[in-house]
Amino acid sequence: MANYALLFIGCLLLVLFGRMLLYRRHRATEKATLPDLVNMKEASERLSQVIQLETISVQKQEQFKESPFLEIHHVLERMFPLTHQNLKREIIQSYSLLFTWPGENSDLEPVMFTSHLDVVPVEPGTQEKWKYPPFSGKIADGFIWGRGAMDVKGGVMAILEAVEGLLERGFTPDRTVILAFGHDEEIDGIHGACQISRILKDRGVKLKFLLDEGTPVVENAIPGLKKPVALVSVAEKGYLSLRLTAKGEGGHSSVPRGMTSIAKLGKALYVVEKYAVKARMDTLMKKTMESIGPNMSFPYRLIMANLWLFKWLVKKKLETIPATKATLGTTVASTLFQAGIKENVLPAHASAVINFRIHPNDSVNGILNKMEKLLRPLDVEIEALDGSINPSPVSETEGKTYELLQKAIETVFPEAVMVPALMVGATDARHYQPLSDHVYRFTPLRTTEDDLDRVHGTNERISVENYREMICFYDTLISASAQK
Ligand SMILES: [Zn+2]
Questions:
Q1: What pTM was computed for the model?
Q2: Which of 105, 310, 405, 429 is the most buried if burial means most Cβ atoms within 10 Å?
Q3: Which of left, alpha, beta for 404 (phi over 0: left; psi -120 to 50: alpha)?
Q4: CA of 374 to the centre of ligand 1 (A)
């Protein structure tokens, strides 16, 4: 019997190690030496000037300041004269920009690059924590500092720098190149990207592919992996907010009558948060793992090469980190709560809003049905709020379009591993989805764990060296994708 057990263990080890050794590794390469496409001192100054324009998206319309949005149009026109001479520029809904660079062959499907001009406000009380004032656009310590440097004026400007440079060098595209910069991505994109998408759809535009801002190049963020990871989001989660309302009898709190509306609602929220979400390893997550796995160190590599045996272990690990857990399934969080007027009055109503981020395996209707079933016995009413959207389809992770992205990433970040991923936040790309089956979300921005708090937080900045890489990335991708 012992012999059989030893034989079994021997065979198992052989299979596990055999699979690990056959695992194809991304070739280790040094950082690229990039061409001097643009004078980086001047390009940094241009980005700095644009950061200084406070194009802030605000939740309350009465706080909206129009002039920086109008000013940015003039500033860009001055900075990129060839782009404005050779591309058709349209101003959409007063503030968004749509550029069309006509290709030689109008039969070819256009490619589109999108980003946004707006930024989030600086949280009151945090200004003091900034090393340099948030709208100073200060260039210091090898960085360009300020709100929007990462999300995503750096992206807008890198695209425009690339196009201006290509025009300067006499490049003419075979297929049409469209650039779209919305002005309200940070609130909902309803007036910017949504309208641009509608206009292009009415014109019958069908895109070969679309690249929006998205997930970055992350460094030192994954245990067992030394190389940077270029996360290309091939899908985006959906969005749904529900208002839950519980009713109770009002009156004096000295004579309660059964469960109060607050208690009923509290119970419902507990049930939703605890039971609504099921995390799972789907096909996309497996593809993500297959791209990362071969480049990991031992013993991670052994585990990843044998997901048939260790899937449960990997899932368990992913579930311990909130950011990776969110990629495994639909998430839900209670975000607003309203009840009561006075400490000695029984509240007749209690209401709360719960926010779902819907995994591509679920849908808005699927979640609604599930919630109705779950909450029916708890005497709570459900109302779906405006703005719900289904998760995006999953764009392919092979084929010509994906290879184009792969080549551009390899050119600029040869030391990085390209990995398909799921975007857990919402971007303008969801509005553009009807225009193409190939929608990708990627920003060629290098980030470490420490940088995660800078986006929408304090001390947002981009290094001049990374900004050079961004310009080079868009130059490579725009010129390659615009050719036949
Ligand atoms: Zn953004």
A1: 0.90
A2: 429
A3: alpha
A4: 35
Exposed / middle / buried, residue 407 (Cβ in 10 Å: 0-12, 13-18, 19+): middle
Kindly report the number of other CB atoms within 10 A of residue 231's CB atom. Answer: 26
Residue with tokens 């790309």: 429
The number of residues making up the chain comes to 484
Which candidate, 168, 234, 174, 205, places its Cα nearest to that of 475? 168
pLDDT in tens, 303-351: 888 888 888 888 888 888 888 888 999 999 999 999 999 999 999 999 9
Distance 443 CA to ligand 1 centre (A): 9
Alpha helices in 169-224 (DSSP H): 193-202
E-strand stretches of 193-295? 209-218, 229-236, 238-247, 251-252
Contact 268, 378 (CB under 8 A): yes
Q: What are phi and psi of 260, to 5 degrees?
A: -75, 165
pLDDT at 322: 83
Distances (CA, A) of 256 to 34, 151, 250, 262, 376: 73, 51, 9, 12, 24
10 Å Cβ neighbour count for 276?
Answer: 17
The SS3 call for residue 225 is coil
Strand (E) positions, 85-183?
88-92, 96-101, 111-116, 139-140, 143-145, 177-182
- Residues taking part in catalysis: 118, 185
Question: Tokens 């309350």 map to which residue?
Answer: 60
Distances (CA, A) of 348 to 259, 266, 335: 11, 14, 21
Query: What distances in angstroms separate CA 170 from CA 105, 344, 477, one per listed residue?
Result: 17, 76, 16
Question: What's the maximum distance between 2 C-alpha atoms anywhere in the chain?
Answer: 83
Count the neighbouring beta carbons within 10 Å of the beta carbon of residue 393. Answer: 13
Instruction: Look up residue 44 and give its DSSP letter.
Output: H
Residues 6+ apart with CB under 8 A from 80: 160, 161, 163, 164
pLDDT, tens digit (0-9, with 9 covering 90-100), for 129-153: 999 999 999 999 999 999 999 999 9
Dist. CA 284 → ligand 1 center (Å): 23
Please state, in angstroms and rounded to a whole number, the distance separating the CA atoms of residues 129 and 429. 32
> Cβ distance 136 to 52 under 8 Å?
yes
Identify the structural domains of the chain with CATH numbers, from first to last.
Answer: 40-235+392-481 (3.40.630.10), 236-384 (3.30.70.360)
- What phi, psi does 412 have (nearest 5°)? -95, -35
Tell me the CA–centroid distance for residue 25 and ligand 1, in Å.
32
Ligand 1 center to 185 CA (angstroms): 7
Which alpha helices (DSSP H) does 96-206 contain, by range?
153-168, 193-202
